[in-house]
Amino acid sequence: MSILADSTYSKAIAKAAHQYIDEGFALVPIAYGTKRPVGEAWNKKQSVITTHEQLDSVIDQHDGLINIGLAHRFSHTCAIDIDDYEGAVGFLEKYGIDLDALLTANNAVQIVSGRDNRAKLLYRVETPLPTITIQGTGTDSNHMIIEFRCADSSLKKTMQDILPPSIHPDTGEPYEIRGDWRNSTLLPEPLRKLWEKHTNLSNKKEKTHRKNGKTHRINISSMGVSTETLHTGSISGAQIKVLIQKEAVQRRLLDFLGFKDYEALFSAGKASVYSVIPPEDKHKSGGLLFADDGNILFHDFSGAGGGKHILLNSLYATLVAESPVDLTPFQTDKGKMKGKVQAATWWLRLLIDAGVVEPAVVNLPPCPVNARPALKKVYYGIKRLFEVRWAYEDHHGLPIMLGRDFLMDWCGVTEQQARIAVKDLLRQEVIYTAGKHGRSKIFLPGPR
C-alpha cells in the first residue's frame, strides 16, 4: 500500500468509526488487515471504544492503519453469520424461517466480506444473548453452518464482527455494509426464539458427566470448524510450514482440537485454557503460547502430554494415541536428524483432519466384514496414512511403510493389535507388500 493509499484508508476508517460512535456503537480495535483484536481483555466493557476521544487516541497510536470491529454485547447488536449458505437455508427451513427473505428484506442490513457462500446479517437486540454455533451432522459435524453472535456464555463479554471499511485478511479488499445500518431492525422474533431454543440445548450438552469413574464431556464448540479447505491439490513441506503459522489456520486447528477461550493468545501472545488431554476435568488447565518461530505451543499444567511444551502436531498425536507423544526431531549420536518425516506426517494429518488441506484420493478395498474394533482402527488409520502421504507433492502412488511402533500411535492401538491387523489386511488383500525400503517392507493398496 502506498503512502497515498495509507492516507486515504486512514481518513476513511476514521470517518466511518466516528459515525459508528455517533450511533452508539461500541468498537473494538483490530490489527490492520486481520480479524485479531488489539489489546488484552478486548472483549470486556472497560476495553471497548465508546467515545470520540478514545477513538482518536487508538487511531493515532496505530497511525490510522487499523481495522475496527463492532462489540455486539455493548452495542445492543447481534449478527447472524452464515458460513455455509446452502446448509443454513436447510437448517432454517426446518424452523419455518426463509433465509432468502431475510437477506432481501427492505430493512436488511448486511456486512459483506466478498467471499462466496457467506453472508452476515446485523440486527439490534434489547437484551444480550450467548453466542451459539450450529454445525453439520455426521461426517460434517465439525463444519460450521451458521453462528448466532452476540455475547459469551456468561453474557459479560462481547463477540465482535469487523466493520467497513476495514480490510479483509483473505481478500485484501474492504468490507462493505449494505442497508441502513443506522436504523437496523430488531432481531426477528422467529430468529430470537430459535436462538433461545438452541441456547438451552447447548447449556444441557455442556455439562460434564461421570460414568464408570471416567469423565465424559460433550464439547459444543463456540466457534465451529469450517471444512472449507484452505489448500487444494498436493502440498509441499515448505507450504505446510507457512500454513501452520497463519492465524486463520491456527484458529481452525485450535477449534478442531477442542480449545475454547484462547483469544488472549492472539492479543497477548499467551492464554490459559482448559486442557484438552484426557481425563477431561473442568479444573484441569493448560497454557498456549507462541514459540519463537511463530508456531503454537501447548503445556498441560498437570503434567499430561509428557509435562513438556509441545507443538500442536504432538498434541494431536497424544490425543489419538491416548499417551504422550513428542514429535520433536532429534539428533542421533552419529549426528543424523531423526523424526522429521514423522513430525511432518502428523502435521499434515492434523491439517487434513481439521479441513485445512484436501486428502489425496485413495482406492483402498473396503474394510473386512465383521472386522474387530482394533482391525477397524488400523484399517481406517492406514487409509488415512495413504491419504496423508499421497497428498505430498511427488508422493502420490508411492508405497508406504507400516512400522508397528508408528501404527500404535497413528491408530491408537497396542503393538500386538497393530501386528495382527496388518497380517489380516495382507491376508484379505486390502494391502499388499510392494517391496522393501532398506530392511523395512513397504505397502500399497491391494489387491496386487
Helix content: 25-40%
Q: Write down the overall mean pLDDT.
A: 85
Number of strands: 20
Structural class: alpha+beta
Order of neighbouring strands in the sheet with most strands: 5-3-7-6
Q: Evaluate the radius of gyration.
A: 24 Å
Summarize the structure in words.
The structure is a single chain. With 448 residues, the protein is α+β, with helices and mostly antiparallel strands. It is built from 13 helices and 20 strands. It has helices at 3-22, 52-61, 85-93, 99-104, 189-205, 237-243, 247-257, 264-268, 312-321, 340-353, 373-389, 404-411, 415-427; strands at residues 27-31, 66-71, 77-82, 110-112, 119-124, 132-135, 144-149, 160-163, 176-178, 208-211, 214-217, 270-274, 285-290, 296-300, 310-311, 330-331, 337-338, 400-401, 431-437, 440-445. Strand 13 (285-290) and strand 14 (296-300) form a beta hairpin. Helix 1 packs antiparallel against helix 2 (52-61) and helix 9 crosses helix 10 (340-353). The termini are far apart.
